[in-house]
Amino acid sequence: MKASNNNDEAIEDGVDTHTRNTVHERLRANSSVMKAKKILVANRGEIPIRIFRTAHELSLQTVAVYSHEDRLSMHRQKADEAYVIGKRGEYTPVAAYLASDEIVKIAKAHNVNLIHPGYGFLSENADFARKVEAAGMIFVGPTPDTIDALGDKVSARELAIKCKVPVVPGTDGPVEKFEEVKGFTDKHGFPIIIKAAFGGGGRGMRVVWKQEELKEAFERATSEAKSAFGNGTVFVERFLYRPKHIEVQLLGDSHGNVVHLFERDCSVQRRHQKVVELAPAKDLPEETRQAILNDAVALAKSVNYRNAGTAEFLVDQENRHYFIEINPRIQVEHTITEEITGIDIVAAQIQIAAGASLEQLGLTQDRISVRGFAIQCRITTEDPTKGFQPDTGRIEVYRSAGGNGVRLDGGNGFAGAVITPHYDSMLVKCSCHGSTYEIVRRKMLRALVEFRIRGVKTNIPFLASLLTHPTFISGECWTTFIDDTPELFALVNSQNRAQKLLAYLGDLAVNGSQIKGQIGEPKFKGDVIVPTLHDEQKNVLDVSEPCTKGWRSIIVEQGPEAFAKAVRANKGCLIMDTTWRDAHQSLLATRVRTVDFLNIAKETSYALSNAWALECWGGATFDVAMRFLYEDPWDRLRKMRKVVPNIPFQMLLRGANGVAYSSLPDNAITHFCEQAKKNGVDIFRVFDALNDVEQLEVGVKAVLKAGGVAEGTVCYSGDMLNPSKKYNLEYYMGVVEKIVNMGAHILGIKDMAGVLKPRAATMLIGSIRKKYPDLPIHVHTHDSAGTGVASMVACAQAGADAVDAATDSMSGMTSQPSIGAIVASLEGSEFDPGLNAHHLRMIDHYWAQLRLLYSPFEAGLTGPDPEVYEHEIPGGQLTNLIFQASQQGLGEQWAQTKKAYEQANDLLGDIVKVTPTSKVVGDLAQFMVSNKLSYNDVLEKAEQLDFPSSVLEFFEGLMGQPYGGFPEPLRSQALRDRRKMDKRPGLYLDPVNFDEVRNKLKEQFGSYTETDVASYVMYPKVFEDFKKWTLKFGDLSVLPTKYFLAKPEIGEEFHVELEKGKVLIIKLLAIGPLSEQTGQREVFYEMNGEVRQVTVDDQHAAVENKSRKKADLGDSSQVGAPMSGVVVELRVKEGAEVNKGDPIAILSAMKMEMVISAPHSGKVGELSVKESDSVDGQDLICKIVK
């Protein structure tokens, strides 16, 4: 038994032990009110601390006992002395506190005068009380005989009947046989409750409503009672429907005096365990109250009750009361009685045990009164969403409530405390006192909101839900209120934003950035400076509020048709700025974050107030936001709309695909467009990757129904001036006519590869303008070949109403042409865009800095590539292909990849190339390079090749019907037995069941928005992964980009604004050493002046280099990986029988998936991979043994 003296809180460090003890003893000697000197509390958690505080006020020395598992618990530190119970491993964590002989031995060895049992454990054990008294010490509680008399419910019931106190009809005594229970129900009927005769806490209790349930309920109750208390005896009584649970606090002395301290309403329970308690009862008639109080005192006097105890009653809906039992101990909820009476019950307990009378203590009934109301909430580490399952782990953050009328009785609630599964889950009791019930209810709510407990789940959200329910507000709760009220579990959980943010920053500090595609750290690490704009008089423009002047007002006030007419009537050529979408998609892998748009948004609203639109949403930005930036694309849209109210927002809609990569049911597109329009999109550029007009019309109709501006778009491919190409002027004019006929407001021309030459632009736009003089025309291009500015000027001169451009530092090459260059080219002419060139340059200063910040995502392009006229790779795809090629080890073969792209396009029938069809061509090209396949090889080996999934989906018809049809026999050879669609895919798909989706999201994530539904329908797996990420790391969109991509320096301070007026001041303090046992590191941050730590798995510590066996190309039984990638799914097990062509595994390489199929029939042997394994090209997957 090792003692630990804990006077650190009262005495400063450095004072020697002799002086410290002398000072302590002098303080007690000068305030002593008792002869006894030392008290031991045979308990743990919060109740010993509660008792120690009163004991110190009574000038007693205090002794704690603790189990080995509790050696770091707070109650040990709050005592003057603390001793471990037994040797390590001698007792289980709970058995240590039931080791009565060992505890008495410790008390005697250290000259203890009194032992207080607290509640639970040994508090109702008469044998323990006898042992204490036999050892010459005082037991702070009733006499052993009284405990025996009241210790089981049967004895207490007999006592009540003797005292003429009402009881619920029940069996006359203990029941051991089922037949006795059945006899009772035959006489009194149902419902009944079966209770364990010994013990409490809800164990051994069963409510039975009908005969069919009786036998099983009896057997379970007796079994549970025997397991919990060592005695399977039960008794049975009539079950009261929705009663109140009222208990009376009693105090008795050794001279036969008993007083009550009024009642508590403990009706709010879960599975017979109290959750929230109130004192006094709010809606108890005075007549019933007095009857209960009188009966409680009479019962206690009949057994000469000594010390504190509680008489418990049920009150039915007719306000009739029935005695249940007397608990011969202090109760958890005694604190609220102390608050309304001003009486320290524990002090009275100790002094009564030492011989004081109630009169000596001033505790006569006439002097005890009630002041106001008090409520107690038990804050526990339980998860209400999982049936109050106890949670365990380390408390990372602990900040408690306080203030007027708030009392906290805590145990192990502190930062760094480890919550184990061994004990009760209570962290702290929060008791509030107020002059009225409503005041104390609101005070408790305020206190609950003040708590910040992180690292473990708590029941605080449930308590808040409970306290705001109308039934609780009225004070009319009953014992099964929680079980009867499922809406209590519609919880508003704490967002835990700060700790989640630190979890991400900690992971970043240990493992580096996890953002896909990032290579290295940003070149620019300073603060991005937002420029100042000036008006024509050189005065500084006030941009504290966004500009309100712009083209959007026409859409909002007059509608899409009026907007189209106004644009057509405009004399100049308007410009759409693509910087917020296609420019960063083409140059920076779509990685620009929401915060970086918002930082320049208000300035942009002024500089581009006369712009046609900002292209800022849809296309790849939608899924990339969730997939790689961990942002909600809808949240981005709403935030941007708020700060740019004047400029129309344009999005890219992939026709019948929405923003997905394959066709979806028509009602999915309708629903998506409705949500997009509601949340801020004005103009929808609708296109189809194959110019399949039936696919295109699905999107256009959805936009028209939603009330948006529909820009029906034709995709430009190849060279219209080349007579050998199938996409000629006649083809394009035919598609335009169909778009006009479907009712589009605007005609869009989408040149996704930048192959629209100036002369072709003049011919195409001029022809359209001549045929459709009132049709607004909007042209989009990429500057891959370097001719973008010339082509857009040619479009303007030929009659285009708007052309696309990007801010200068984000323009050129695979992006759009320079906005500054186009404005300068058209300035002063009849086509002048009406934009302030100086303002454009100032905005560009911001983007020049930002591009350096996003340098880890640069594709490394150094200039224009006129070769695009040959390979026709779209601008956005070109950078992606370069990156993907390097990731798959094909970087040195980039020239071959470009050539293979041309050949792949020819193999597929010279198709229009834009997402998703451009991906089909790209996947086939990479597949050919990776497997060293020529054009002829593909044709000759088509029946044996495992084509990428996207190629097979294209051949199936899932992307629509290509102009000129599918290439045969390649299509049939590649598909083999797969289906072929000859109509648009949406006609084969069942409509989305939106109610089903909503229910699934509610079940999976607790709540959802209608935009969540739209996201899930587009990308189910991506959305689920995004939600899981945010549950772990929170909303990262608020984090400044440089700290999103790279860790701060040690000691560097930075700010994060969670929302308006809520700023976190964060500083990285240290990164701890690697734990060899766990592979983790502790990362220490200072946040708002408070040191916080997060535990991070060091991914580098777990890296295992595995060299895989290569497949022998000469052995047809060996199946190798066709290229580098990750095994995302295995379709077979070792020993399985397969037929030729059966799928073995699905391989994913970047965004490309392909099926690995069996080369011949046989049995699977030597399966060398498992799901999630990374493989290189030709790594052995398995063998197929004939």
UniProtKB/TrEMBL annotation:
Residues 1110-1185 form the Lipoyl-binding domain. GO terms for molecular function: ATP binding; metal ion binding; pyruvate carboxylase activity. It comes from the Eukaryota. It is found in: Cytoplasm. Its cofactor is Zn(2+); biotin. Residues 35-487 form the Biotin carboxylation domain. Its EC number is 6.4.1.1. Keywords: ATP-binding, Biotin, Cytoplasm, Gluconeogenesis, Ligase, Metal-binding, Multifunctional enzyme, Nucleotide-binding, Pyruvate, Zinc. The active site is at residue 329. It catalyses: hydrogencarbonate + pyruvate + ATP = oxaloacetate + ADP + phosphate + H(+). GO terms for biological process: gluconeogenesis. Residues 1-20 are annotated as: Disordered. The modification N6-carboxylysine is found at residue 750. The modification N6-biotinyllysine is found at residue 1151. It is an enzyme of class 6 (ligase). SUPFAM superfamilies: Aldolase, Glutathione synthetase ATP-binding domain-like, post-HMGL domain-like, PreATP-grasp domain, Rudiment single hybrid motif, Single hybrid motif. NCBIfam families: PRK09282.1 (NF006761), PRK12999.1 (NF009554), pyruv_carbox (TIGR01235). Catalyzes a 2-step reaction, involving the ATP-dependent carboxylation of the covalently attached biotin in the first step and the transfer of the carboxyl group to pyruvate in the second. This is Pyruvate carboxylase.
